[in-house]
Write a structure and sequence with these properties.
By secondary structure, the chain is α+β, with helices and mostly antiparallel strands. It has 5 helices and 4 strands. It folds into 2 domains: 96 residues, Roll (Nuclear Transport Factor 2, Chain: A); 40 residues, no CATH class. The strands form 2 sheets. Strands 1-2 form a two-stranded antiparallel sheet. Strands 3-4 form a two-stranded antiparallel ribbon. A hairpin with a 2-residue loop joins strand 3 and strand 4. The longest helix has 24 residues. The radius of gyration is 28 Å and the shape is globular.
């Protein structure tokens, strides 16, 4: 369906004002819920057939998928953002849109229970090593110097 830019729905001004106020309230609740980082705070704002479209991810369609997407997002990110409504248009009694801008910070957190794995390790002590078995602190030193520090004389082959 192509929207006609000249179409004006016949809505009573009081109804439009009431709808706009309700939409602003929902957006404020969403802003609070997002900053709170709790899926339970976001879910009451979604209809059963709601769609969540996070950036750089697949859309989540329906409450179960939306819940799963927010659970994953909140386990990895913390938000401190403020929405500003740039445009709010009530087109018909059951159709409106809102366009927002946001400013603030998003912090990447390490999910609970996940530990950072060392990049490489060839020792059982858990000491990080390079592919050659040298510790990262000594890997950049020339082989002759590493051998001398270890108390060994370098041979021609090791050079």
């Amino acid at each position: 369906m192509i929207a006609d830019p000249n179409f004006k729905a016949t809505l009573a001004p009081d109804d439009v004002a009431e709808d706009e106020a309700a939409i602003r309230g929902v957006m404020a609740s969403y802003n609070d819920a997002l900053n709170g980082g709790k899926t339970a705070g976001v879910m009451p704002l979604y209809a059963d057939d709601g769609v969540f479209m996070p950036p750089y991810s697949q859309s989540a369609v329906g409450k179960a998928a939306v819940k799963t997407a927010y659970d994953a997002g909140f386990s990895e990110l913390r938000f401190h953002v403020k929405f500003t409504i740039a445009e709010l248009v009530v087109m018909a009694p059951s159709w409106a849109y809102v366009r927002t801008n946001s400013a603030g910070t998003t912090t990447i957190i390490r999910p609970a229970g996940r530990r950072r794995k060392p990049t490489r390790s060839s020792s059982s002590s858990g000491r990080a090593t390079t592919g050659s078995g040298a510790s990262p602190a000594t890997a950049s030193r020339p082989p002759t110097r590493r051998l001398a520090e270890a108390g060994r004389e370098p041979s021609a082959i090791e050079e």
